[in-house]
Protein: Caffeyl alcohol/5-hydroxyconiferyl alcohol 3/5-O-methyltransferase-like 1
Organism: Selaginella moellendorffii
Amino acid sequence: MEDESWMKLILINQGYFISSSLKALVKLKVPDILNKAAPSLSPVEICDQLPLRSKATLDSSASQLGRLMRALAMFGVFQECPSSEGEQRYGLNAVSKHLVTEGNSESMVPSMMFFPKQYNVWDLLPDAILEGVQPGSKAHGGKSVFELDPAIVKVFNTVMSAYTRRTMRLALQVYDGFQHAEVIVDVGGSLGASLEIILAKYPNVKGINFDLPAVVEHAAKVQGMENVGGDMFVSVPQGDLMLLKWVLHDWNDEKAIKILENCRQSLAEGGKVVVIDALLPEVAEKSEEYSLADKNAVLYDLAMLTTGEAAKERTYKELEQVAMAAGFSSLSVRARVDSASIIEIYP
């Protein structure tokens, strides 16, 4: 059998071609066009619905678009639907349906618009490794990209809102650990989207959405949910379930321990902390043993590497060490949705 290692490396190295092609089609709203014209369209029919600079370029534009569509179809993003005459036609499949924006609150598109803004950081990785500094801090003069560009903050909030809606919807299908709580404190709960979804299913539970005062003043007003401003490194409100969704991965071990210590001090007797974060896989004997969720978790870790100071995803053992250092006795992974693990931590 021919050694495919060379071609595999080429595919990895040129992965940027695929993500850039996909971003181009998203900017042109091709998924939305296909969604309205099921089951399929030809590149010419798609271009007919685009604001071309000149209709005289229709054939040239369709040729370029068709080449992008063909490549993405090969990578499983779109469905090839050739006509009986062999005409190139494309439709949506299960993957590209996540790129539809109209009427889709869980669209992946905001995420695609956010991550390319970090590309300049990757060029600094060699120097960052040699100097022992975080590439994100090096790229932005010791500051987070969020501190420098308010527009990125807005895009990021949109990204996290879509991720939250999907993750919490799926979590409530496989995890029932919220239903018996009396008071859930969402620590670092941002605009309250997680609690809004939880309380819709469990209306008898009281929710406290806890974040910085400047954040919660813009939070949703939801029946049964109180928005409380404060600093999780100082103290957190009292409750019998503390929710930390995509919070601990923002901080180094020392600060993550402090957050968990404050949660433990405010935890009612018999209560628990629920962490939702991507858990990195332990080392496998063969790369084929890693699941798609494992590989996504590793990519999330690289995203953390480029965004903030000491931000990182953790393995189960690393999270366990942090939890034990904060005074907890045990933890248990209860479920996994996409690449997010739902972990209960007990005093």
Remarks:
- The chain has two domains: 5-99, 109-346.
